[in-house]
């Protein structure tokens, strides 16, 4: 499973990239607004840090505006994936951009029928938001399993990008469900490696080694 960071914060992205395990980055208008800086300048900086797909979202809601923005964003760097919302105008824009060879991440997916339409429109990936579904007492992970099955049944090449991840257990379940990509906040990424028994075990190994040296 590919691991992406879900942030527009370049400090976090650099720290994550230093480990050499980050395959890509997703941003959205809220994450970009939080940083308070030029969008394109930020994208270029991110593209220099991570050599993988970097999602950048359009803010237009009419297909023509989305197509124009999408073409523009795709010109920023070869690794940019254009993110469009899962509304009828977004699907129209996806079809057009995909036909031009621009990779599209269809975002704000909350149902299997939406995901089916995204695949039919030629999306490079679809982003189901599992945390936001869990927040309203729905089963976010059940949606991932449904989409993975539907795409397998018809051999759609669209990848399932598990988004709105809130904790490491979401990552485990995304991998078990066969999600192709999982994007997560940096704090969740940091938690993936941690285990208290690893720390206790290492401390004991080193203490035993030191004690032997003193004999
Ligand atoms: C990623 O592409 C999404 O924009 C993001 O995962 C949304 O996460 P949130 O529900 O925590 O805002």
TrEMBL record:
Gene3D superfamilies: Aldolase class I (3.20.20.70). GO terms for molecular function: aldehyde-lyase activity; transaldolase activity. One of its GO terms (cellular component) is cytoplasm. InterPro entries: Aldolase_TIM, TAL/FSA, Transaldolase_3B, Transaldolase_3B/F6P_aldolase, Transaldolase_AS, TSA/FSA_arc/bac. Its EC number is 2.2.1.2. GO terms for biological process: carbohydrate metabolic process; ketone catabolic process; pentose-phosphate shunt. Keywords: Cytoplasm, Lyase, Pentose shunt, Schiff base, Transferase. It is found in: Cytoplasm. It is an enzyme of class 2 (transferase). It comes from the Bacteria. Pathway: Carbohydrate degradation; pentose phosphate pathway; D-glyceraldehyde 3-phosphate and beta-D-fructose 6-phosphate from D-ribose 5-phosphate and D-xylulose 5-phosphate (non-oxidative stage): step 2/3. It catalyses: D-sedoheptulose 7-phosphate + D-glyceraldehyde 3-phosphate = D-erythrose 4-phosphate + beta-D-fructose 6-phosphate. The active site is at residue 83. Its main location: cytoplasm. Belongs to the transaldolase family. Type 3B subfamily. Transaldolase is important for the balance of metabolites in the pentose-phosphate pathway. NCBIfam families: fsa_talC_mipB (TIGR00875). This is Probable transaldolase. It comes from Nitrospira defluvii. The gene is talC.
